[in-house]
Specification:
The chain is an alpha/beta fold. The protein is built from 13 helices and ten strands. It has helices at 2-18, 71-83, 95-100, 116-122, 145-160, 162-171, 198-208, 217-224, 228-239, 243-261, 266-272, 278-289, 293-305; strands at 28-29, 35-36, 42-43, 47-48, 57-61, 87-91, 108-110, 127-129, 133-136, 139-142. The strands form four sheets. A four-stranded mixed beta sheet has the order 5-6-10-9. It is globular and about 65 Å long.
């Protein structure tokens, strides 16, 4: 719901400020039936996806696990719209069905940090970006609701100029107009924190490059030209933890993304974060989150059955 209103409301305000209808929109659902948002608010679409459509742009909004009821027919509609020149886009979890439709091959897209591990697992060949907005030729993607607002401001600036875009931002007290190239703020990647010592930041960056084949502290120290003891001391001073405990937490956070936002089996999730067998993985997962991967997924699925989606998990 937030993603939807965040891209529509700035366009509505721009029309009002400019005193002309530069932007118009329709709500589309796959079948034309009502859609219940994750907040429980019901939206009534204007048309079905199968209707005769001629949009300049079409954006998909959904959770990452959402699927079309009739994927073959619906994906065919999206591919037809692409062939006729429409800009196709996805906001937040909407990039998942967008990629599944087959229209994103060779294109770069913005992926919300909480879906990153699941996205890379499902679409390893895709060019995923941590930028808040990515426009790649006729493909526009935004990582979340605030990013959708930024994307709307970008569209307004392109069509009505920077003064009106700034006034729209001020109407909504949107504090910053973020353009392309701006990275998401990501709690799971503290190496982006400038307060961390350089040695700690570089160690983390090297570790997260390959979570499926995690490097030892000794390997990282050797690659950085320091001793393991230096790495240990730097981590203890900066984070209060040993590097091995810190790295394990990173692996568990990535694992939880896969548990909550992918359909990978426990064994597949374990392998993705560097465990050759499931038993130690499940034990570490339980220690980190108080439940097993199966219990965690089952608990979240219970919310989904009731029509609700969880908040992004850290």
């Amino acid at each position: 719901m937030s993603c939807l209103t965040s891209i529509i409301e700035p366009l509505r305000a721009a029309n009002e400020i400019a005193e002309r209808e530069t932007f118009s929109w329709q709500l589309i659902s796959e079948t034309g039936s009502k859609v219940t948002s994750s907040a429980g608010v019901i939206f009534e679409p204007d048309v079905a996806l199968s209707a005769k459509l001629d949009p300049a742009m079409i954006f998909l909004l959904s959770g990452p696990l959402s699927e079309f009821e009739a994927p073959r027919a619906s994906n065919s509609v999206l591919r037809k719209l692409e062939r006729t020149g429409a800009v196709l886009g996805g906001i937040s979890g909407g990039v998942f069905p967008l990629v599944k439709s087959g229209v994103m091959e060779g294109y770069k897209c913005s992926v919300h940090w909480c879906y990153e591990a699941a996205f890379k697992s499902e679409f390893p060949e895709m060019l995923a970006s941590g930028e808040v907005i990515v426009t790649d030729r006729r493909r526009y993607t935004a990582s979340g609701a605030a990013a959708a607002f930024d994307l709307a401001l970008q569209l307004i600036e392109e069509r009505l100029g920077p003064d009106i875009a700034l006034e729209v931002a001020c109407w909504f007290q949107h504090p910053m107009m973020r353009g392309e190239g701006v990275e998401q703020r990501v709690p799971l990647k503290p190496s982006t924190d400038p307060a961390l010592p350089d040695l700690v930041g570089r160690s983390i960056e090297m570790f997260v490059e390959r979570l499926d084949e995690p490097r030892s502290v000794g390997d990282i120290a050797k690659a950085l030209g320091v001793t393991p003891r230096q790495v240990e001391r730097a981590f203890k001073k900066a984070t209060g933890q040993s590097p091995s405990h810190y790295f394990r937490a990173l692996r568990m956070n990535a694992a939880r993304q896969l548990v909550l936002y992918s359909k990978d089996s426990t064994a597949q999730v374990a392998a993705a974060v560097g465990f050759s067998t499931t038993t130690p993985f499940v034990n570490h997962y339980r220690n980190a989150f108080g439940v097993t991967p199966k219990q965690d997924r089952g608990r979240i699925n219970a919310f989904r059955v009731q029509g609700n989606m969880p908040l992004p998990s850290t």
